[in-house]
Amino acid sequence: MPDRAPQPVDRQLPTDEARDLISLVREIAQREIVPHAAAEEDAGHFPRELFALLSESGLLGLPYDSEYGGGDQPYEVYLQVLEELAAARLTVGLGVSVHSLSCHALAQYGSKERQAEYLPAMLGGGLLGAYGLSEPSSGSDAASLRTKAVREGDDWVLHGTKAWITHGGIADFYTVMARTGGEGARGITAFLVPGDAEGLSAAVPEKKMGMKGSPTAQIHLDGVRISDDRRIGDEGQGFAIALSALDSGRLGIAACAIGLAQAALDEAVAYATGRLQFGRPIADFQGLRFMLADMATQIEAGRALYLAAARLRDAGRPFSKQAAMAKLHCTDTAMKVTTDAVQVLGGYGYTADFPVERYMREAKVLQIVEGTNQIQRMVIARHLAGPESR
């Protein structure tokens, strides 16, 4: 039996434009991303020049309004682009997802004047965004954040530290949640902070087990002064804005997880059909065939789940529960599939000569970011059984 080259995912896309878009993404992935992914991840290199190319190609603002430089694409299409990018390199797919997340607040809650002023550069002007919600002492309990914004005339002055910030230290702008009122969720307001603002600095990036090419760092705000026109939405509306963004962002993480899992499956199938033992390809052995079948089934189920949630979003219907389900299932699937891919490759899977060990290390973080999978289970359960009794 010959080696079986991985086949592109057979996608059901709503328009010819969407099909052309996927073809463009695959071309960029094979030409610009895949050849450099392993070496750049090993070196901890973030491909900023690649993100400039993605911006020029219209891929950093796909789900947003073309009036402001976006791509006018439904989430159903945007997420499949993320999946393709993540399959090529998770740092890239996740980076596009985080950038899109950082644009959400202004695009959905900003005034028309501020949208016209800032969005074109954010969506298609080569800028890179970051999202500032988590803090050293507030992760899952995000409403307990301590970063403060104090009103001084027509300005706001921000003090505090944000943690676990993807693109921390290299972003051109940050969507930051800060406390402007009392304790709890109702005292939080959203702000758009320039990356070069005086008083904003980044700590040394975290030393992570995977995704070494994607910088994650604390951001310090020491008297950062911004004008009131950089406040997004009403005072006290910030936490609701943050949750709205996270519902959409969780779908981005789900799509990235399926892309990573698909890459691991492709590698496992190619290896299993080419590796001979006992005079036969190891793909002939039933135990291994069943593993591959289970991996493929879970990937297809995850893809169907995130697309179903995306279609609800595109139709303007509630999708929070389905977003949590998609994030939960798809990231758990990525962890299982990448672990199984290492097992299929045996000893070779445990070496850096093959990408599956990197995939396995990268998959773990997807069960944690943008709401741990334990939080996703809480969200789903609340939709089913109501809030927990106190």
Describe what is shown at a glance.
This protein is α+β, with helices and mostly antiparallel strands and 390 residues long. The protein has helices spanning 16-43, 48-56, 75-88, 90-109, 112-124, 238-274, 286-314, 320-345, 356-366, 373-385, and strands at 129-132, 148-152, 155-166, 173-179, 188-194, 200-202, 216-227, 231-232, 276-277, 280-281.
Elements, N to C (H/E) = HHHHHEEEEEEEEHEEHHHH
Q: Uncertain runs with pLDDT below 50, 5 residues or more?
A: none
Mean pLDDT rating: 96
Distance between the termini: 61 Å
- Numbering strands along the chain, what is their spatial order in the largest sheet? 1-4-5-8
Strand content: 5-15%
User: Any idea what the shape is?
Assistant: globular
| Biggest pleated-sheet summary | 4 strands, mixed
The count of DSSP E runs of length 2 or more, i.e. the number of strands, is 10
Q: Helical element count?
A: 10
Which structural class should the secondary elements be placed in?
A: alpha+beta
Helix share, percent: 40-55%
* Cα gyration radius (Å): 21 Å
Plain-language structure description:
This protein is α+β, with helices and mostly antiparallel strands and 390 residues long. It contains 10 helices and 10 strands. A 4-stranded mixed beta sheet has the order 1-4-5-8. A hairpin with a 2-residue loop joins strand 2 and strand 3. Helix 4 runs antiparallel to helix 5 and helix 8 packs antiparallel against helix 9. The protein is globular and about 80 Å long. It starts with 15 loop residues before the first helix and ends in a 5-residue tail after the last helix.
